[in-house]
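pls design
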């Protein structure tokens, strides 16, 4: 197969068919690393195909070559598949400054090394005075060059460029070295004209001598230049300056501050309450954050939120939400620091598997769970907590957890769910248990007598009859009571009680036949051959693999795949919150695709109300099976 193309965050399933006798051992690997089912990957293996599924969506790091290997004692075969993940572009390269004048200069740069799988639509140019911390947006350009104007003379600047495609913005390019604009002596302006040192300077006391008064009226935003008499700043007026005879009250700027400690990789949502605010922005260490996949803006009433998808140490520092209101600029400040402890949310390394057992057997459901700190484990049956008793025990060995059911009975059948939870999150997995009852019937004997001169008696004894939901078997022996040494034994598999009754009727009919010796035995064999062909054969349905709980962003395409077995092919039905799903539901957004041993539920343009429990039901005349997966929809 060719390369698999996917968007960042998309749920991907790579399906590879295989064959071989005996059944081969299947392994997946990327590079030198073997892949097993965990929180990021799900490996599905059935009798005819294997799939590598990314249930939580792919990321840029997932791009590359994957090798699937099939091996048994007769040989080995392997196949390589390339996965290409579309993402935001790399940062622009080689930023250079030329043609520097007093108030302008030219910038040129090279396109990103990779465009993330989508054409770069524009570039954002930012500048910063070397004496300031905050980067200021200058303009956007479609080409890899731009002329920056309206600069101040004899001022030191740095510049950087950000690339953008339809998936979002790249990281900024490496900033330029500090550049000092020229002083144009032919144009004498108030802020950069030459000073006549022989001229007498008249000093007058400033109208606002108090530093507090100055900062009450202005916010110092950027240093623009230095001169003989001090430093020139760009200033933003916090409130209007009015003459003393105008008596009007002015509101002060409101500032709130919150200290927070977060962990590496943690999903974080900050909330700032600013009623009636406009022009709201979030600023990290003096740099404005752009609304993107990594930093998601949100509004709920008067609450303005910022969701950081995966916090890292670059987010450490002062994060401020600024909103302009009629009363002034409102600031809500968050002081973010990172915990030194290494921690992560629980994730399944291996999940418990569904089982079919006979009544009286012992059952062991096991799973392996990672997480730091070690998660708390709870077991549920049919969504009800399990009570520990002499019949049911829970065990733990390092990070392997097990539920043991001794001498299982039919009442133990159901859905068993294990939930793992710690401070940083939780996960769950479900497996089904079917306990099959044993039904025994006493031995039955049928005596056949022939008419005519020859007195011949044959006795047929039903050796034993053991019937279960998954296997029925009967064994019959035919022998001559007159001392004949010939004995014929016939074995019938998967024979129903109705078929057994038909066999007895056939034997009785044969007792009235006048045919002797081999002719009688021949008719018996022909009759039993027909019954073997009409006997019932089958395998109850079984769910081989179903994904763990899935979280996905609103607006994405959701794919839930499940492998199954059963003979004859079971009827497949999907339910959402107890309601049967059909392709006509929700304006055709729901689609169900089912092949011989795989069923897939596809939901286009996922919406918030699509979240909840989804159940897969399988059924044929030999039994049924079902499993449930929880879908969580993240708001954008």
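designed seq:
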């Amino acid at each position: 197969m060719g390369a698999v193309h996917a968007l960042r965050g998309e749920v991907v399933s790579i399906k590879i068919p295989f064959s071989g006798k005996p059944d081969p051992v299947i392994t997946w690997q990327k590079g030198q690393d073997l892949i097993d089912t965990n929180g990021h990957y799900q490996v599905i293996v059935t009798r005819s195909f294997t799939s590598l599924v990314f249930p939580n969506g792919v990321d840029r790091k997932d791009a590359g070559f994957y090798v699937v290997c099939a091996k048994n004692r007769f040989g080995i075969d392997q196949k390589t598949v390339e996965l290409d993940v579309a993402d935001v572009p790399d940062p622009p390269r080689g930023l250079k400054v030329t043609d520097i004048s007093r108030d302008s200069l030219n910038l040129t740069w090279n396109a990103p090394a990779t465009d993330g799988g989508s054409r770069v639509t524009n570039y954002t140019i930012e500048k910063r005075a070397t004496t300031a911390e905050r980067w200021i947006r200058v303009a956007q350009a479609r080409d890899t060059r731009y002329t920056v104007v309206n600069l101040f003379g004899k001022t030191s600047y740095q510049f950087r460029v950000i690339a953008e495609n339809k998936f979002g913005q790249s990281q900024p390019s490496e900033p330029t070295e500090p550049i000092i604009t020229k002083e144009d002596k032919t144009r004498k302006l108030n802020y950069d004209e030459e000073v006549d040192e022989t001229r007498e300077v008249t000093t007058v006391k400033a109208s606002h001598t108090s530093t507090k008064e100055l900062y009450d009226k202005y916010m110092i935003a950027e240093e623009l230049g230095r001169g003989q008499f001090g430093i020139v700043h760009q200033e933003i007026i916090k409130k209007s300056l009015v003459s003393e005879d105008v008596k009007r009250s002015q509101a002060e700027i409101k500032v709130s501050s919150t200290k927070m400690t977060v962990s590496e990789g943690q999903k974080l949502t900050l909330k700032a309450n600013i009623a009636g605010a406009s022009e709201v922005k979030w600023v990290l260490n003096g740099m404005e954050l752009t609304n993107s996949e990594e930093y998601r803006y949100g509004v709920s009433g008067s609450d303005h939120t910022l969701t950081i998808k995966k916090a890292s140490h670059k987010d450490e520092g002062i994060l401020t939400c600024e909103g302009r209101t009629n009363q002034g600029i409102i600031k809500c400040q968050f002081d973010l620091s990172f915990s030194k402890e290494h921690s992560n949310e629980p994730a399944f390394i291996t999940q418990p598997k569904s089982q079919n057992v006979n009544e009286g057997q012992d059952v062991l459901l096991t799973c392996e769970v990672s997480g730091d700190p070690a998660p708390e484990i709870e077991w549920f049956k049919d969504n009800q907590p399990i009570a520990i008793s002499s019949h049911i025990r829970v065990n733990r060995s390092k990070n392997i957890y097990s539920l043991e059911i001794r001498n299982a009975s039919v009442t133990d059948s159901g859905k068993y769910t294990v939930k793992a939870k710690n401070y940083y999150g939780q996960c769950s997995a479900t497996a089904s248990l079917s306990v099959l009852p044993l039904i025994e019937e006493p031995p039955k004997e049928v005596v056949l007598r022939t008419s005519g001169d020859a007195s011949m008696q044959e006795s047929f004894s039903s050796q034993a009859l053991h019937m279960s939901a998954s296997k029925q078997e009967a064994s019959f022996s035919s022998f001559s009571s007159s001392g004949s040494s010939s004995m014929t034994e016939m074995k019938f598999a998967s024979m129903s009680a109705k078929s057994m009754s038909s066999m007895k009727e056939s034997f009785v009919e044969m007792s009235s036949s006048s045919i002797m010796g081999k002719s009688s035995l021949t008719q018996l064999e022909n009759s039993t051959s027909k019954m073997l062909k009409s006997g019932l054969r089958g395998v109850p349905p079984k769910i081989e693999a179903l994904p763990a709980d899935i979280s996905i962003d609103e607006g994405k395409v959701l794919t839930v795949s499940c492998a199954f077995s059963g003979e004859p092919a079971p009827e497949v039905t999907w339910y959402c919150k107890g309601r049967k799903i059909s392709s006509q539901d929700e304006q055709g957004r729901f689609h169900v695709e089912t092949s011989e041993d795989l069923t897939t539920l596809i939901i286009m343009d996922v919406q918030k109300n699509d979240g909840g429990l989804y159940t897969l039901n399988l059924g044929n005349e030999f039994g049924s099976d079902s499993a449930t997966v929880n879908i969580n929809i993240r708001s954008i």
